[in-house]
From TrEMBL:
InterPro entries: ClpP/crotonase-like_dom_sf, Ech1-like, Enoyl-CoA_hyd/isom_CS, Enoyl-CoA_hydra/iso, Enoyl-CoA_hydra_C. Transmembrane segments: none annotated. Belongs to the enoyl-CoA hydratase/isomerase family. It comes from Actinomadura nitritigenes. Keywords: Fatty acid metabolism, Isomerase, Lipid metabolism. This is Enoyl-CoA hydratase/isomerase family protein. Pathway: Lipid metabolism; fatty acid beta-oxidation.
Length: 268
């Protein structure tokens, strides 16, 4: 897909260095148990670059231990218009031809790290999605545990129309949510899914008017923080394991997690 550049830079206890975030077009705010990650290139509808994906990975690596909820949002009129098309025109870091398969594999894995950390059991991740959520932006929303969408949202898996495939961890949750037939239809037509259909398909757990998005996210975050932290972690771990487990395996996992909760509750 592309060629690797230098690493992510020096991180602080509260997240990556400011210059890393600025280059990535990201903003990070940590308020106690809540971290808010804002895609901050509104003049480009928060189009993503390699620096963006590296910056997201750096945030994941340096997230303060006390954070329980991470909110992903976009500045301006859109969540994210997806990959910055200027990268196809030779501006800045460009695409490789894939001739060195091993190097390209390593590089794509580096970019995917910007998405995979959002599934960690010790945090709950919430995508506050409005306007365009295209390609890599759609996949970023899919990487989150819960999606709160404004009624102006427009989801689209654009990569096949550009001659590419979705490679930022989005294919697995998409198939799990909508099924393989619908996932094929959405990806191979690269059509737009609006809010009503997104709710019907399960691509958004909550849909609200655009001017109510912030309040809906704040209410959800407050509810998430009201749950016992240890129980939240154990339950997320259970639910993420469930699709791959047999019933017998899942029953055993439930017993294991409950034993851990009982020991903590009763100081054993």
């Amino acid at each position: 897909m592309a060629e690797a550049n230098a690493g992510a830079g020096t991180a602080t206890a509260a997240g990556p260095a400011e210059e890393v975030l600025a280059e990535a077009g990201l903003r990070l705010e940590v308020d106690g148990a809540v971290a808010t990650v804002t895609l901050n290139r509104p003049e480009r509808r928060n189009a993503m670059t390699f620096a963006t994906w590296r910056g997201l990975a750096a945030i994941g690596r340096s997230l303060p231990e006390g954070v329980r909820v991470v909110v992903l949002r976009g500045a301006g009129p859109s969540f994210s218009a997806g990959i910055d098309l200027s990268m196809f025109s030779g501006e800045g870091e460009g695409f490789a031809d894939g001739s060195d398969a091993a190097a390209t594999d390593r590089f794509i894995a580096e970019l995917q790290e910007g998405y995979t950390w959002l599934r960690r059991p010790e945090i709950v991740t919430v995508a506050a999605v409005h306007g365009h959520a295209i390609g890599g932006g759609f996949q970023l929303a899919l990487a989150c545990d819960i999606r709160v969408a404004a009624d102006d949202v427009r989801f689209c898996m654009k990569e096949p129309a550009l001659g590419l495939v979705p490679d930022l961890t989005g294919t697995k949750p998409l198939v799990e949510i909508v099924g393989i037939g619908r996932a094929l239809e959405l990806c191979l037509t690269a059509r737009t899914v609006h809010a009503e259909e997104a709710a019907r398909l399960g691509l958004a757990e909550i849909v609200v008017p655009r001017d109510g998005l912030d309040a809906a996210v704040a209410e959800l975050v407050a509810s998430l923080l009201a749950v016992n932290p240890g129980a939240a972690v154990a339950t997320k771990r259970l639910l993420w394991e469930a699709p791959q487990n047999t019933l017998e395996q899942q029953c055993a996992a439930e017993r294991r997690e409950q034993i851990g909760r009982l020991r903590e509750l009763f100081g054993k």
